[in-house]
Amino acid sequence: MPLPLIIDTDPGVDDAFAIAVAALSEDVDLLGITTVFGNVPLEATTLNARRVLALCGRADVPVAAGAARPLVHAQLRRASHVHGPDGLSGRSATLPEPHRAVEPGGAVRLLVSLLEAAEEPVTIAPIGPLTNIALLLAAHPQVREKIGRIVIMGGGLAGGNSTGAAEFNIWSDPEAARRVLVEETVPCVLVPMDLTYRCAVDSAWLGELAASGPVGAALAALTPDYRAHYRTALGWDGIVLHDAVAVAEAIRPGILRTERYPVEVECSLGPARGATLVDRRRQALRADAEGDVVPGRVEIAVDTDLDGLRAFILERLARS
């Protein structure tokens, strides 16, 4: 049976790759896509998601627009310096125009309707700020039993990319991230930037993608601004497909090796705001104020077969 999957996203170049991986996978039942503010404003992320689906020939997949801002404090900075002014290196308009209108009622309404209609547990892959997912779980707790697991791209174990402490998706709405990762009971997998950076692809990989067919060529053409940023960030010519790594794990559980740990999210307004605090001490040393051992709840992705992961993503994107 195909895997029932919903993607929550803020496209974003790596989000576009992640959407395409799912949209082109025959073993995935892509139930819907919800959008959120993040790399660029909500209007742009929603249009980008619809255009990527049009590129993949997936007019059957509904798209609903979600949160335009964080739960509590305003977003301090977008990521247009990484993804370009429209989120896709200034090349969003090179993609096909969508034929399907945005779903009425918003992201949470679509999420609830898709989950309530599902006959088996649904995987949700949030690859942007976690605002929509926090709102869903807070307002509609009855849908928890319909969620198989939530596979999240976000966080950094050794630091961040938006600040020295915080990764962009978590930093954009720490209160929402804390709601999902700390306060909820739904099984979560967190795919941090420590691992996604190790999965970076080089110019040869991008060349193979561009030569694979019209979808691959169109996706590769979205990368110039993103590639320029990562040429500086990596020190060599390549890009980091953060979100596609998380969606690969959503599609093929176990493609990433995980370890279970307790997680906290820093929500203060100080320099550590948005930091993902993963307690990697031995379990016997993890005690609360009463001396009780604190169990790990979140599966943290720590390793993978790097070449195998890159080949998996390329093979899915070449299926067009």
From TrEMBL:
Gene3D superfamilies: Ribonucleoside hydrolase-like (3.90.245.10). The keyword Hydrolase applies. Its EC number is 3.2.-.-. GO terms for molecular function: hydrolase activity, acting on glycosyl bonds. InterPro entries: Inosine/uridine_hydrolase_dom, IUNH, Ribo_hydro-like. SUPFAM superfamilies: Nucleoside hydrolase (SSF53590). Residues 5-308 form the Inosine/uridine-preferring nucleoside hydrolase domain. Pfam families: IU_nuc_hydro. It is an enzyme of class 3 (hydrolase). It comes from the Bacteria. Keywords: Glycosidase, Hydrolase. The keyword Hydrolase applies. This is Pyrimidine-specific ribonucleoside hydrolase. It comes from Amycolatopsis viridis.
